[in-house]
Design goal:
The structure is a single chain. The chain is of the alpha/beta class. A seven-stranded parallel β-sheet has the order 10-9-11-8-7-12-13, with helices on both faces. Strands 5-4-3-6 form a four-stranded parallel β-sheet, sandwiched between helices. The protein folds into two domains: about 240 residues, Aldehyde Dehydrogenase, Chain A, domain 1 (3-Layer(aba) Sandwich); about 150 residues, Aldehyde Dehydrogenase, Chain A, domain 2. Helix content is about 40%, strand content about 20%. α1 packs across α8 and α2 runs antiparallel to α5.
Length: about 425
């Protein structure tokens, strides 16, 4: 008796097999051909007719989002305009000019046997990219995968359905024009979750799944996948104001990290203040934040430092608040007794995304860098710098918060595997 195979499973298998065939062809194309594809994508993003189609599609998504009552942070992630399209084009053009890691050989050395041994960077194969409301991910993911010889299956969220469809049409048109396999980029309309689950079972054809979005999405992918998963988990990012900190610098960094774009994953969600400077800094930073419309959820120790002050935007924090990614103009505030307690606090409440310390003490900065477990750790800089472009990677596929196979922003090199290559002169063993 043969096992029943659902229609969804058959469609998912066919889609994955096409992606696998495309990845094999794409991996054997020249670096110049793949770079030309990226250059063409960047050019098309600036064409007036293309921009008109994309922005009209995006307006449909934004109007639906407003009607559904989504928050301002989600709407900001969703919205496109000419400036954002130009920035996206610049990012793809920059990526096109970056060195191609595919085929490069590292750590080449002679062994006592006379063999010369190294490790060559090769494409991962087929990437299943699962994401939610940010339509720019469609372009970023496709560009990164094409540059590195990987094919990609794009499964965006329903919020950006029309925008993603417009981007996918542009991408496949470019692939046809430059004679690269069209199935190197496949866009999956946001179907039922059951179809995504069917895709996550195609371990024979899909090499890695990368979910980028909310906690619910990532946990669902982890639960249903038979494919290796690289998690891009929530960003509960902190700034720790150490006792030697320049308090004006700390204030500037916190304001930037919280208010410049509160809806992105590298935005600040929690402030941790050393008790030694809390009496001066806590009232000052709360006044500055609340004046900018930020709601501050403070621990009991922090609230004690607000006695005699009246701030409308301050609430007592619950235990759960310290683990939340707010993605809006809300943050937590905690006071700790020193570096040891600060590190314990971050171990307990951080999400391994981004942590920053403000300090004038060199040893304290080094200790923080060494002991904090996060994909990006900064000294005297905003959490907003944990970004592929800012860190020199060009675009990024996302920010991995798991250590296998990548940790931090995933750029070109993180979309490659490393295989051993051996040069001999007839050696036998």
């Amino acid at each position: 008796m043969t096992d029943f195979v659902s229609e969804e499973s058959l469609i998912a298998r066919n889609l994955a097999n096409r992606a696998k065939a495309a990845s094999t062809s794409l991996s054997r194309t020249s670096s110049a051909a793949r770079t030309a594809a990226l250059q063409k994508i960047a050019m098309e993003l600036l064409v007036h007719g293309q921009q008109k189609k994309i922005l009209e599609a995006n307006q449909l998504d934004c109007s639906a989002a407003v009607a559904a009552g989504v928050g301002s942070a989600l709407l900001d992630r969703l919205r496109l305009d000419e400036k954002r399209l130009a920035s996206l084009a610049d990012s793809v053009a920059e990526l096109a000019q970056m060195p191609d890691p595919v085929g490069s050989i590292e750590d080449l050395a002679f062994r006592p046997s006379g063999l010369q041994v190294g490790r060559m960077l090769v494409p991962l194969g087929v990437v299943l990219m699962i994401y939610e409301s940010r339509p720019n991910v469609t372009i970023d993911a496709a560009a990164l995968c094409l540059k590195t010889g990987n094919s990609v299956i794009l499964r965006g969220g329903k919020e950006a359905r029309n925008s993603n469809r417009a981007f996918a049409s542009l991408l496949r048109s470019v692939l046809e024009q430059v004679n690269l396999p069209e199935d190197s980029v496949q866009f999956v309309e946001p179907p039922e979750h059951s179809f995504l689950h069917a895709l996550l079972k195609q371990q024979g054809s899909i090499d890695v799944a990368i979910p980028r979005g909310g906690e619910k999405l990532i946990r669902s992918v982890m639960e249903h996948s038979r494919i290796p998963v690289i998690q891009h988990f929530k960003g509960v990012c902190h700034v720790y104001v150490e006792k030697s900190a320049d308090l004006k610098m700390a204030e500037n960094i916190i304001i930037n990290a919280k208010t410049s774009r509160p809806g992105v994953c590298n935005a600040l969600e929690g402030i941790v203040v050393d008790e030694a400077v809390a009496a001066d800094f806590v009232p000052s930073i709360v006044a500055t934040l609340t004046a900018r419309g930020v709601e501050v959820r403070a621990c009991a120790r922090a609230i004690k430092h607000l006695d005699g002050h009246s701030f409308a935007g301050v609430k007592a924090a619950s235990d759960d608040d310290f683990d939340r990614e707010f993605l809006n103009l809300t943050c937590t505030l905690a006071v700790v007794s020193g570096m040891d307690e600060a590190l314990q606090f971050l171990d307990r409440h951080g999400s391994k995304h981004t942590e920053s310390i403000i300090t004038q003490n060199y040893e304290s900065g080094l200790r923080f860098l060494r002991e904090v477990d996060a994909s990006c750790v900064l000294v005297n800089a905003s959490t907003r710098f944990n970004d592929g472009g800012e860190l020199g990677l060009g675009a990024e596929l996302g920010i991995s918060t798991s250590k296998l196979h990548a940790y931090g922003p995933m750029g070109l090199r993180e979309l490659c595997a490393r295989k051993f290559v051996v040069f001999g002169h007839g050696e036998v063993r």
